[in-house]
Structures are given as C-alpha cells and as structure tokens.
Amino acid sequence: MKYDFDKVVDRTGTESLKWVYPRKVLKVEDAIPMWVADMDFEAPPAVVEAIRRRAAHGVYGYPLIPPSFWQAAIGWLKRRHGWDVRKDWMAKSPGIVPALNYAVRAFTKPGDGVIIQTPVYFPFYHAVENNGRRLVRNPLRFDGRRYTMDFGDLERKLDEGGRMLILCSPHNPVGRVWTQEELEGLGRIAVERDLLVVSDEIHADLVYSGHRHHVLAALSPELAERTVTCIAPSKTFNIPGLSMAVVIASNPKLLEAFKDETERAGFELGQVFGIVGFEAAYSQGDDWLDELLSYLEANVDFMEKFLEERIPAIHLVRPEGTYLALLDCRGLGLEPAALNDFFLKKARVYFSDGAMFGEEAAGFVRINFGCPRVLLVEALERVERAVKELG
Ligand SMILES: Cc1ncc(COP(=O)(O)O)c(C=O)c1O
C-alpha cells in the first residue's frame, strides 16, 4: 500500500461538522461519529499539494475556471466510466445539493410532482419541498437483504403526474449499485413517459468488486436527451468541504436552463481551492482511489463478520458501493424513535437515524464506515457492549 488509510487523523480544532455535532452539540464528549458523509482520511497527497501550492501564492482573488479543470473531469469520466463527455455539455455548481435545488427550479414549475426513490438521502426531499414542488415517493422494495426499484409503482406515480425523477445512483443510503438492466428498465419508462431524470452520481466512483457503475445518460441517446447528470470528486476523494461539482447534460436546452437557474441564484464564479482540488483529484487520484476501495471493502468484510458473529441482532445491508450502509436494527426490539439515542447515549457511537431517509428505514441506522479500521473496531465493540446490556 502506497497510502496509509490506517492513519488516525485528529480532527480537533478543524470545526468538523462530523466530530463537533455529537460531541459538543449533543454533548457526548467521547462519541465516535459515524454519520454525515465525510471520511476520516486525508485527501490524496496530490490534492493536498495542489492546494498548498495555490495557498502559498497568497492572493485569492476571483478565479476563472481553466480548460484543464474541464479536461480533468472529461479524462476521469472516460477512464473510470467509459463515458465520452464534451466541455460544452458541462456546467459548474457549488455542490450537488445546490445543483439538485437549481434543477428542481429549472425543470419544473411550482406544484409539479417530483419523484424520489425512498428511503433516500434527505436533501432530495428538501430540494423538492423547499421549492414548492410536490413530493412523490416511489419507495424501493426491500426483501430483507437487498433493495430494488419498483417499476409498477413508478408507472402509477407517473399516472398521477410526476414530471421529474431524482435518481440516486449508486444509492445512498441503501448501498445499491444499480445494474445495467435496472437502469435500462428505468430508462425505458423515462423515454416512454417523457420523464426527466436528474441523476445524482456523486457515489459513482465508490463501487466494490463484482459491481459496476453505469452512467444513466450513457445507456442510450434517447435517455441522454432527458438526463442531467451530477458528478463531483467530493465523496470519492473526501473533499466535500471544497464545494465543487459539475452538472452534465448533452441536451443544450437542459444545460442552458440549468445555467440560467444558477445565474438567477447568483452563483457565478467558483472557489479558488475547490477548483484546484477538483482538478488535482480527477487528474491524479486514480491510484489513491484504487487503494481506498480495497480498504473500504475490507471494512465492509470486517463489519459483516463482526456483526454476524458478535451482534447477530443487527444485520448489515451489505453495500455494493459508497462508504455508507444501513444497519437493520429491528432485531434489537427497541422503538425506532429511541434507536439513535440508544447508540449515542449507551454505545457512544453516533449514526444517522434511518428514519431521516424516509419512514421505510425506521428501525435502521446508517453507518459511515469511511474511517481507519481501529475506529471501526472501537465503535463496533462499543455497540456490542451496549447491546449486551439490553439483556
Ligand atoms: C447522494 C448524495 N448527493 C449529494 C451529496 C452531497 O453533495 P454536495 O456536498 O456536493 O452538495 C451527498 C453527500 O452525502 C450524497 O450522498
């Protein structure tokens, strides 16, 4: 291994949301935070070095985006996903959550139905509801081990007037890396029913062995016409604080509508370090990512074995991608509303409450296992002790 993912980095003093919230706001001083989606790893050295170099200049005026920034994204998408993208298909965004909000405003009108596949990353709900659109749920099906899409339900929701779907691919929090077949099934419906898809592919690079991410827009020209894809290096390289993302649409009408919306929101220029970090990550991050994926997959294996052997009342919904996973805790016999508090107060481990992602995930928590193994071991041992005390 060239990179040391076992290294424990003390984040004290960096005002890290992940660490400050459970410890200072919820006041469990020694809680291990395993909730919000940032990892406890340093960014790739190439990213750190690029930012250090830029920081050393000392003047941080309004930045332009250099051609090399777009080239880095184009190269990455070609190398990692076999997707040929052109610069004139792309627009920048200060993040994917902002992009989802811009997209809702750009492509729908107040009162229009926007479909999401629940349980799902909760800012999807906010993007719809905070902009005065009607939230339409197309719940995923769960067979006890794995989630799948429900196309019959989707067709019915379209009959009720859904115009746009926000797809999470790979899916947070259920950990699915949608197969080509599944995405083609969704794509057929989208084309037949004139549905616009905003495809949030922020987790596209974080996929484990035996699975492959498929870019929705790359599946067919008809689908590309009605798809807006959101990508970012922020989850992949652990740089969400750099606030830089890109939206891609080969349909010029969609791209222009998106850009008009960003302009109306007053977003004009990027952020100096975001631009530099984005480019360094996408142009020099390949080998770091390959090693990260091995490390994360070993974390999944470790966690699965640990739970099976030592805490069988908690079942891991094994993720096919992302560093997030649902833990099915219904076997503990606790009230869903009391679950996260139990983990925080009794185990001193802070997870995301499943119910935040939708009522379908009540009784589950989401673990963020993007951390050095020692932290994961300590967290699971704390959970084991707390569960034993339940009797
Ligand atoms: C599916 C999904 N979209 C978007 C984001 C956040 O994007 P950003 O930080 O670029 O707004 C996350 C973070 O966890 C996510 O899981």
How do the strands and helices of this protein lay out in sequence?
Blueprint: H1 17-25, E1 32-33, H2 45-57, H3 67-81, E2 90-93, H4 96-107, E3 113-116, H5 123-129, E4 134-137, E5 141-142, E6 147-148, H6 151-159, E7 162-168, H7 180-192, E8 196-200, H8 221-225, E9 227-231, E10 245-248, H9 252-264, H10 272-284, H11 286-310, E11 315-316, E12 324-328, H12 336-347, E13 349-350, E14 352-353, E15 364-368, H13 373-390
The structure holds pyridoxal-5'-phosphate.
Pyridoxal-5'-phosphate binds at residues 37, 95-97, 121, 168, 172, 200, 202, 232, 234, 240, 245.
Low-confidence stretches: none
The structural class is alpha/beta
CATH class of the largest domain: Alpha Beta
Bound molecules: pyridoxal-5'-phosphate
Q: Specify the biggest β-sheet.
A: 7 strands, mixed
Structural Rg = 21 Å
What is the number of E strands? 15
Distance between the termini: 42 Å
Overall helicity: 40-55%
Write structural notes for this entry.
With 391 residues, this protein is of the alpha/beta class. The chain folds into 2 domains: 17-43 and 286-390, Aspartate Aminotransferase, domain 1; 48-284, Aspartate Aminotransferase, domain 2 (3-Layer(aba) Sandwich), CATH 3.40.640.10. It has 13 helices and 15 strands. The strands form 4 sheets. It has a 7-stranded mixed sheet with strand order 2-10-9-8-7-3-4, sandwiched between helices. It has a 4-stranded antiparallel sheet with strand order 11-12-15-14. It has a two-stranded parallel ribbon with strand order 1-13. Helix 7 (180-192) links the parallel strand 7 (162-168) and strand 8. Helix 3 runs parallel beside helix 10. The chain is globular, with a radius of gyration of 21 Å. It starts with 16 loop residues before the first helix and ends with a helix. The mean pLDDT is 97. The structure holds pyridoxal-5'-phosphate (PLP). Pyridoxal-5'-phosphate (PLP) binds at residues 37, 95-97, 121, 168, 172, 200, 202, 232, 234, 240, 245.
